Fold these 2 entries.
Entry 1:
Amino acid sequence: MLDPALLRPGRFDRRVVVDRPDVKGRFEILKVHTHDKIPLAPDVDLEVIARGTPGFAGADLANLCNEAALLAARTSKKWVEMIDFENAKDKVYMGGERRSMVMSDEDKRDTAYHEAGHAVVAACIPGADPVHKVTIIPRGRALGVTWQLPERDKYSSTSEFMEGQIAIMMGGRVAEETFFNRLSTGAANDIERATTTARNMVCNYGMSEKLGPLSFGQGDHEIFLGRDISQRRDFSEDTARVIDAEVHDIVMRNYQRAKNIIEEKRDRLIAIAESLLVRETLDSKDVTLLMEGGTLPPKSNPTMPPQSSDIGGADPGYKPALNPA
Ligand code: ZN
C-alpha cells in the first residue's frame, strides 16, 4: 500500500501491473528455480507441476522448489522427486502440517464431517473446481482443509460459479448441523468468505437483479493512516437496506442448496468423513470413488512424508545439500 501522496502526478510516470503467471509463465519460472540449483529425478515433469499450480505467484513457485528440495534432503535422497513437489505444494498452499497438535477424537470427528460437507457439495455442483485434496491434518490455523484446484488458469468468474462457491463454503456448517445438531466456531472463516463473496457480487460486480449493474463502492481502497476510515458511502440508507437484503438472500439460498445436496448425499458424506478419520487425507481420486458409491481399498502402510514442525516455513536462504548422481 503506497501513501497516496507518493502517487500524486509527477512522482511516478508509469505503473507496471505484474499479473500472476499463466501456465507457460509458471513453467519458465520453475525452470529458473530448478536450473543448476536442484537435481531433479527423471520422474519430475515441470510442465505437470506448472499445470497443477494455477494461482501461484513467482514467490510461491520459488518457495515450492525450496520446500521440495528440503523434503528430499530430509530423507537423504540424492535428487528431488515428483512426490516431493507434490508434498511441497500442499505445504506452500495450505501451510505446514501441525502433527504435534493434539486433537480430541471429538474434534477430529467434527472436522472430518465439516470437511466432508465441503467436499460433497463441491463434487455435486456443476462447474465447480474439482476437489484436489481433503485433509483433517491441522495446517496453519485450520483444523482441516478442502482444497479445490481449477483445471486451468482462470481470469474471471461467473455469478453461477460464485454462487456455487458460496454453497460449498456453507457445506461445512450444514454438515455440522445435520450430523451433530450443533453449531461450532469452525465455520467462522467459511461464513466470512461467503458473506464477502456475496457482498462483492452485489456491490462490485452488478450481479443483483434488484440493484442492477451498478457499483456501490465502499471507498475503502484509499484508506491511509486512519483517514477515510469512517467509510464513505455514496448511496442512500434505502439502498443500503436493499444491499443487505440481497446479500442475505444470496447466502441463504446457497445455504439451502448445500442443505439439499447434503440431505440427498447423506450416505456419501458419511463415507467420506469416516474415510477421513482413518486416512486423514483423501485425494481427488478417493473423493470421486466414494462419491460414486465405491469403497477405498484397505489402507496400505502410509508413507507419510517427513514434515517439519509447525513453526515457520523454510529458510529461503538455505541451500539443501544434495549430491547429484
Ligand atoms: Zn470449512
Note: Residues 18-94 form a domain with the Helicase, Ruva Protein; domain 3 fold (CATH 1.10.8.60).
Entry 2:
Amino acid sequence: MSAQILLPDAVDRAGAVLAGGGLVAFPTETVYGLGADALSGDAVGRIFRAKGRPADNPLIVHLADAGDLGRVAGAVPSLARRLAAEHWPGPLTLVLEAHPDVPSVTTGGLRTVAVRVPDHPVARALITAAGVPVAAPSANRSGRPSPTTAAHVLADLGDAVDVVVDGGACRVGVESTVVDARGGTPVVLREGSVTREMLGLRDGGPAGELEASPGTRYRHYAPTCDVVVADATALHDVVTRHLRAGARVGLVASTRRPVPDGAESVARFGDAAELASLLYRALRDAEDAGVDVLVVEAVDETDVGRAVMDRLRRAAAG
Ligand code: AMP
Ligand code: MG
C-alpha cells in the first residue's frame, strides 16, 4: 500500500491512525518524524521494522505539552523543569528516568527516556489529536539522510508508513540537541541547534558519554555518493583533485565562494544556520543528480555550526 498524503488540517484523522497503533510521518521544526504511540510496544515495533533501525537505538518521545511529562518520565528533577521552561517547545531533548508505563522497545532497553515538545504547530496538534505520547525517530531508512520534506519521507518509507502529514520544509534541518537532565548540570549527548551556550554551559560543559547516547554509535546521514568536507582555503584544490581523477563533483559552498570550473553547484549557503536547514536536502539532491563526490565547505564549530560539522563528519565517514 502506498502512503496517503494529508493536509495539515487533517491532523484529526492522522491522530486517529496514531491512536489505533498506526505509523504517521509528520513535520517538526528539526526534521520529519516517523511517529507511533510511544506507550504501545507493538506500534513502536513497527517503527523499528519500517526504518530497519537497530533495536538498541532508543526513540525520542514527543509531547504536545510539558505538562504531560509525568506520563513518560518517572521523575522530573529541577534541572529538567528549568530546561523545559526555557526551551520548550523547541529542539531540545531531555533524557530522564523512564516511567514504568514506557515499554522497553521505546527506550531501546534503557531505564531512561528521551522526551521533547516540538516547536511545530502541526506536530503538536497531531500529538494532541492522538491523545498519546508519540515516539518518533527521523522518518528515513536507517543510515540515510534525515528527511526535511514530505517527498523525502515518501522516497524512503512510502510503502511502510500509513500516513504522511505534509507541513512543508523543516525550518531547523538538523535533529534536536540531546541532553541528560537527570543531574545538576546538563550533559550534552548529541549536538543540535540549542547550543551549549544556550544551555548555560560557558566552558562547554561535561563531555557526554558515547555509551549514554546509543544512536551516536551508528553510521548516519549517508547518501550514495561520497561526501568530502573541506575548509574554505582547501575547497578549490579538493574539487580540482576529484575532477582530475575523473569524478563528477557536486559542491555545497558559501555564496561568497566562486564555483570552480567543472564542479556542479548543489546548494549555496549564507551561514551555518542556513547550511543546517539545507544540508540533508543537499545530500539527497547530490545523489539524485548522480555526482560521484559531494564536496561540502566546512563551517566554524560555533553555535549551530557544531551540530552541522558533527552531521557532516558522520555523512563523510566510511
Ligand atoms: P533520532 O530520533 O533518530 O534522531 O534518534 C534519537 C537519538 O536520541 C538516539 O539515537 C540516541 O542517541 C538519543 N536518545 C534517545 N533516547 C535516549 C536515552 N534514553 N538515553 C540517551 N540517549 C537517547
Ligand atoms: Mg535519525
Note: The first strand starts at residue 4 and ends at 6.
